[in-house]
Amino acid sequence: MDYIEFLTALGENELVSLLINADIDMISVFKDKYQRLLKEYIYVGGMPEVVNSYVTSKDYNEVRKIQIELLKSYENDFSKHVPKNELPKVIQIWNNFNSQLARENKKFIFGAIKESARASEYENAINWLVETGLLYKINRVNDAKIPLEGYIDYSAFKLYFLDVGLLSAKNSMGTQIILEGNEIFKEYKGALTEQYVLEQIKSNYDIPINYWTNKTATSEVDFMVQFMDTIIPIEVKSGENLHSKSLKVFVDKYNTKNNIRTSMTDYKKEEWLVNIPLYLIGNFDKYI
Predict the structure, then answer these.
(1) SS (H, E, C) the chain
(2) pLDDT for 79-127, tens place per residue?
C-alpha cells in the first residue's frame, strides 16, 4: 500500500481528497498532519497485514512483531525455493544489502559481502531476490537521453527493499524515532527516505527507475525516470540542507526542463526546479 492507500485505511478521506486533487493551498494548511502520518507510514510500511494491525490497534509493538514474523517467513522460504548452490549467496545478500543502503554512496559493493567477491558470483542470487519481488534493483545510467534504457550501466546498481516498514524493522529502528522531529528521515543516511520515494514512484507509475552519476562519481542524482518522453531527475533530501549541487550539475549538463527535489519543506516552484514535499511525491506529475 502506498502513502495515499495508507491514509485511506486510516480513514483520512479528507486528506486523501486534497492529495488526489492536488490542492496545494489546503495541503499546506494540513502539512503538520501529513508529516506526522508520513512518519507513521515509514515505520509501519504498506504491507496489508501490518497496516490492518496498526489501523485496528495503533500498537507499534504489535506492528513490529508482525514485521519481524514476515521477515522470518521470507528467510524460511529461502531453503524451500532457492537452488542449493545459490542459497548461501542469497542469504549473504539478504543479510548485507540494508547495511549497504546505510552507506553515503549506496551503490552496491560486492567487496562488502566478502573480500574479493565478484559480481559474477552473486548475479544469480541477486536476480532471484529481485524476481521474487523481495528487492528492487536500480541501475545507473551514464547519460540522460531518450530512451534511457540505451544508456544503462549494468555493472553499477543499488538494491532497495520491498517495503519501507520492513526495512525499518530489519534495521531494528525503535518507536521513539517517530516522536523525534524529522530524525526518521535522516536515519541510515537517508536510506529510509529514498526507500519511501522509490516505493511511491513504483506504486503509481509504470516506468523504469534509474539513478545517475557523472564520470568521476562526484555528482549523483538519486533517481531518474523517463516520463512521457521527458527525462526527469529526482533528488531526495532527508535533512534540512536543501542545497542541490549534484542536481544543478545534472541540469546544467543536460538542460532538462522538469527537475524535482523532494524534501519535507513546502511545495515551491523555482526557475530550474520544483520542490515537492515527500508526502506528495507519489503524484509528482501533478506538480510539475
Answers:
(1) CCHHHHHHHCCCHHHHHHHHCCCHHHHHHCHHHHHHHHHHHHHHCCCHHHHHHHHHHCCHHHHHHHHHHHHHHHHHHHHHHCCCCCHHHHHHHHHHHHHHHCCCCCCCCHHHCCCCCCHHHHHHHHHHHHHCCCEEEEEEECCCCCCHHHHEEEEEEEEEECCHHHHHHHCCCCHHHHHCCCHHHCHHHHHHHHHHHHHHHHHHCCCCEEEEECCCCCCEEEEEEEECCEEEEEEECCCCCCCCHHHHHHHHHHCCCCCEEEECCCCEECCCCEEEEHHHHHHHHHHC
(2) 999 999 999 999 999 998 888 777 777 778 777 777 677 888 889 999 9
The CA distance from 13 to 23, in Å, is 14
Q: What is the residue range of 214's domain?
A: 3-287
Domain count, the chain: 1
pLDDT digits (tens, 9 = 90+) for 239-250: 666 677 899 999
For the chain, what percent of residues have pLDDT higher than 90? Answer: 74
Look at residue 179 and tell me whether its pLDDT is greater than 70.
Answer: no
